[in-house]
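Quick log. Single chain, no ligands specified.
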Amino acid sequence: MFLNSKEVKLLTQTSRTTEEQVIIVNDHDIAIGVEDKTRAHLLGVLHRAFSIFVMNSAGRLLLQRRALSKYHSRGLWSNTCCGHPRPGESINQASRRRLREEMGFDADLESVFQFRYRADLEEGLIENEYDHVLVGLFDGVPKPNPAEVAEYRWVDPTTLSLGLEAHPESYTYWFRISFDRVFEQSNQFDV
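-> predicted structure:
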């Protein structure tokens, strides 16, 4: 695959600032290698990821709006937290690490399902992920990292469902396709 000049520029700029690697997997989520995170998103190779949905005891979901400095899906609303496990790191370890890094708190998390999706994003990036979805409960006050999160809010599922229907473009691709299934599979977050 050949990269255009914009893609090469993005790859070289990001390579200087991060050495983060993702786990490349096959269709059955079996690890077959590692790749630089940016290169994996430029090439569109299937890699392992996770998405976290945290509710409070009042039944509201904690959403975040991605920081404008993020490398893709900037400024869009999404689930509480998401990311990629590092080589040698379990989904549980990685998800709790990212929850602390992005939202400034820790919570017990339960895996509810996995799904695979592919989406073409801005600047020639491609999300091709085997995504592990986890749910948790938290009643405190998040302390989000401003480099990761522009803002956050707690939203009841009914209001959120109406917002997703009316303005899907305001939400990340993976969130739009996983939201309904999360609530079906997790029994309203009885974790």
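The chain has one domain: 5-185.
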